[in-house]
Amino acid sequence: MCGIVGYVGNRQATPILIDGLKRLEYRGYDSAGLAMLVDNGISVYKTEGKISNLESILPDIKSTCGIGHTRWATQGAPTTTNAHPHVSGNISVVHNGIIENYEELYEWLISKGYEFVSETDTEVLAHLVHMYYKGDLISAVIEGLKKVKGSYAAAFLCAETNKLVAARKESPLVAGVGNGENFIASDVTALLKNTSQVIYMNDLELVQVTAQGMQFFDFDGKPVEKKVEKIEWSLEAAEKSGYPHFMIKEIHEQVTSVNDTLMGRISEISGDVILQDITLTLEEIKSLERIVILACGTSYNAGLLGKYLFESLAGIHTDVDISSEFRYANPVLSKSTLVIAISQSGETADTIAALKEAKTYGCHTLAITNVVGTTLSREVENILYTRAGPEIGVAATKTFTSQLIALYLLSIYFARKRRKMDIDKSKSLIISMKLLPGLIQQILNNKEFIQKQAQRFSNAKDYFFLGRSLNFPIALEGALKLKEISYIHAEGYAAGELKHGPLALISNETPIVALATRSSTYDKMVNNIKEVKARRAQVIAIAGMDDTEIGKYVDVVIKVPITDELLYPILSSVVVQLLAYYSAQALGCTIDKPRNLAKSVTVE
Ligand code: M6R
N or C: lower Cβ tally within 10 Å for the chain? Predict the structure, then answer.
């Protein structure tokens, strides 16, 4: 998705903006551009493709004020003309989001004599602000944006004044506080190199940025008091640190990220889960009749394991809905429903819209998210941060296992409050969870073996991932990981469902990954493996170290260390992530930035 950076200060702006844009590359983009304030006005540079293309056309620009953008095409092809910034006279703009009343504004602006050069909706913003500009940029931006329906994070530069004005509505925007310099960005990772002091902007707020300071306003032009917050993420965490790809770095980081999600939330002594951020009262937890989980993609797969946990541990009926479907499905919700929105980025437009819809029914709300200060975190009553650190690879890895850990914690927490789990079970699960980082390290120590299997099957056209009960979500996640980064077609199936259709597709050319760790459905899973073996499929089983039988039925066994039956999904997740990573590597794919995909999907 699109990215924005802006700078005003005493240093040369170009390298700062280019560095910021590079740190936003992971979000996905197809063109990039800069608008720089120079002696005789604004200079704009933009290109299709990579930021390196943009760098190659940049002259030596003397400027201490500018805005930059990476565009992920929505309206209008990914061409140089459609790239941002867009210009109207003395005004330049970069924009993330969608202008829903574009057609109407376009006709109106044409009637006022404006000419359009691009196919983008963003160009209306440049013309609107130009039309209302009478010497005060902030007033012009307010007037212009009042005409707009839709979503935006937008930053404006005016040739006549050494300042930026930026505004947000339903698209992320954060201001960075420096010393004699200030920044704006659509994502904190673009700011980390220069400052850890940030101010998160709310919907319908504007900021006026100069080298000396920042003033925040609402759309009536009234000043708004804002709080400076410290970003806990380090710059190093957002860099590759010697790994060839962010994805493999992030897979390795699960040794610490799982621990970070647990930290301070479990007590081995009392055997309980402590969730200080949860404001639901005991009475409210006891009277919960239903949980509805809203999420997309990998977060949805995490939600499916959440359903299993909430139902089996805490006895709460749980539904998991794809966010983009929920909103249009006439949901049935009540005040005794808890809606849990799961989103790594906290900015996924579908999930935010679904949550807003759910809130109209008066239900309790909770978010499981990885990024502090995001739109999602400000929409809910309760937040469980996953604390996995910045995830740059488009394929979610460490944030997925941290989401799962958060769901384990929450389900044990509810189970204890509702008296569905005794202290011995809770204690034993907590002790097993504490051991997970060491067990993940053991899997990583065996990564060469997993790499060999990935290479062996990397020419396959179709893969199937099979699992039952709590392994089913990991089968879906394994298939999603493989298809998104290696482009191998992959399907995740509940193994029992195979004979109801997909078995017709199984042959010796379809490798099967069978999630066969110990569980109540283990024997049934073995039967399903026999079914696919009978169709001559090659089977890679993921099984526990103690399983001496499974090798008889399959071609390859990837062993995972022994843990509590409930916790195997965490370990199996690491294996399917490695399989996907090494398959994509064998095929020479652009692992961290798969084609057509974006890290944070901020449009519906
Ligand atoms: O930021 P979110 O967790 O809300 O993102 C949801 C999906 O877009 C995301 O999980 C996507 O499926 C990933 N590319 C998966 O690796």
Answer: C
For residue 343 and ligand 1, the question of a CB distance below 6 A is answered with yes
- Whether 602 is in a domain gets the answer no
Name every residue whose Cβ is closer than 8 Å to that of residue 562 and which is 6 or more positions away in sequence: 544, 545, 546
User: Which of 232, 252, 256 has its CA nearest to residue 242?
Assistant: 252
Examine residue 440 and state whether it is found in any structural domain, yes or no. no
| Same-domain status, 56 and 193 | yes
Q: Is the pLDDT of residue 600 over 80?
A: no
Looking at the domain assignment, is residue 429 inside a domain? yes
Q: Choose which residue among 326, 344, 350, 352 to substitute to test ligand 1 binding: the one with the highest number of ligand atoms within 8 A of its C-beta.
A: 344
Record the pTM.
0.82
Q: Which candidate, 323, 377, 371, places its Cα nearest to that of 344?
A: 371
- What's the CATH code of the domain at 419? 3.40.50.10490
- H-helix or E-strand containing 476? helix 472-486
Tell me the pLDDT tens digit for each residue of 313-327: 999 999 999 999 998
238, 273, 296 - which closes a domain: 238
Which amino acid residue places its CA nearest to atom 8 of ligand 1?
A: 297
Q: Three-class SS string for 313-379? A: HHCCEEEEEEHHHHCCCCCCCCCCEEEEEEECCCCCHHHHHHHHHHHCCCCEEEEEECCCCCHHHHH
Place of tokens 């400000």: 378
CA of 395 to the centre of ligand 1 (A): 7
The span from the CA of 29 to the CA of 49, in Å, is 8
Same domain, 231 and 252: no
CB-CB contact of 545 with 563 (8 Å):
no
**Bridge partners for 272 per DSSP:** 267
Q: Are residues 166 and 226 in the same domain?
A: yes
My answer on whether 530 and 571 are in the same domain is yes
Tens of pLDDT, residue by residue over 114-172, are: 999 999 999 999 999 999 999 999 999 999 999 999 989 999 999 999 999 999 998 88
Task: Answer yes or no: is the C-beta of 478 below 6 A from any ligand 1 atom.
Answer: no
Residue 542 lies in a domain: yes
pLDDT band at 502 (very low <50, low <70, confident <90, very high): confident
Are 234 and 248 found together in one domain?
Answer: no
d(CA 217, CA 232): 27
Please, are residues 299 and 396 in contact by the beta-carbon 8 Å criterion?
Answer: yes
Q: Tokens in use for 112?
A: 């006022």
Supply the residues annotated as catalytic.
2, 599
